[in-house]
Amino acid sequence: MKKWLLFLFITLTTMLLVTACGTNEEAGNGTSGEENTANGTEGEEEEASEESETYTIGATQIVEHPSLDAAYAGFQEALSDAGLDVEYDFQNAQNDQNNTSTIANNFVADDVDLIFANSTPSALGALQATSDIPILFTSVTDAVEAGLVEDMEQPGENITGVLDLHPDSIKQTIDFIDQYFEGSTVGLIYSAGEANSVTQIEAVNEAVEGTSLSTAERTVASSAEVQQAASTLVGEADVFYIITDNTVVSALETVIDVAEEQSIPLVVGEPDSVKRGGFATYGIDYHTIGYRTGEMAVEVLTGEKTPADISVEVPPSMQLFINKEAAEAQGIEWNDAWDEEAEFLETEEAEE
Question: Keyword annotations for this protein (predicted)?
Answer without folding.
Answer: Signal
